[in-house]
Amino acid sequence: MFTGLVEEIGTINNIHQNGQTLVIAIKANKILSDIQLGDSIAVNGVCLTVTNFSKNHFEVDVMPETFNDTTLRFLKVGSKVNLERALAANGRFGGHFVTGHTDGIGLIRKRSYFENAILIEIEIPEEFNHLVIEKGSIAIDGTSLTIFKSSQNTITISLIPHTAKASILGSKREGEKVNLEFDMMAKYFYSFMQNKSQTTKSKGIAIEFLKENGF
Predict the structure, then answer these.
(1) b or e along 56-73 (b: 16 or more beta carbons within 10 Å of the residue's beta carbon)?
(2) Which regions are annotated as Lumazine-binding repeats (predicted)?
(3) 149: phi then psi, degrees, rounded to nearest 5
(4) Is residue 140 within 8 Å of residue 180, measured between CB atoms?
(5) C-alpha dist (Å) from residue 99 to 42, 137, 140, 175
(6) For 79, which of 8, 12, 37, 85 could close a Cys bridge (C-beta 3.0–4.6 Å)?
């Protein structure tokens, strides 16, 4: 479990690709202070497992499903990435609940400024429109953000100067892709309502059937 509060920006040191699998070495500093093999690290919002590390870098494996469903396949040596360690049981919780399981990929359509805010308009896959709510939460490249505005297939988020400086979103440009993880509570609520609706329909059919047959 993560919070969506980026701890530091890392740099890709090396990438070894074999088909649709990757071994990525990432240069970091802060998150290496207590790192252990098997730890979970969110890299641009994708939960990955530490397979090797030294005093100035760590390595992770990317499997085919993650390769195809996230932006990690677009990384190059020198690319900057958002990094966050899994939430400690005794840690202070900020941001919102982020699992590190990316739902899809978004495309930055427009970047503009309003006083001290950076407004970023992102195109999202149509199948996730039902999970969008204005003032609701979303994780973009692992950064916990609030949906400022929404329309069909697009959302707009607003970056304060601190977030722009502390995450790679501050330097992302129009045409670049980002990882999207929609709010866990929205997904659970939608799933609950879908199941409830199906159950209600099933009960309705059963009651109607019984009445028609004299029960």
Answers:
(1) ebbbbebeeebeebbbbe
(2) 1-96, 97-193
(3) -155, 150
(4) yes
(5) 9, 13, 12, 26
(6) 12
Identity of the amino acid at 76 = K
First to last CA, the chain: 51
Q: What pLDDT, in 10s, does the model give residues 166-184?
A: 999 999 999 999 999 998 8
Strands (E), 39-95: 40-43, 46-53, 57-62, 80-85
Kindly state the average pLDDT of the residues 79-101.
82
Q: Helix, strand, or coil here: 201?
A: helix
Residue 95 pLDDT greater than 70, yes or no: no
User: What is the predicted pLDDT for the residue at 206?
Assistant: 52
Which residues on adjacent β-strands are paired with residue 32? none
Dihedral angle computed from the Cα positions of residues 7, 185, 151 and 70, in that order, rounded to the nearest 10 degrees: 50
Q: Enter the pTM of the model.
A: 0.86
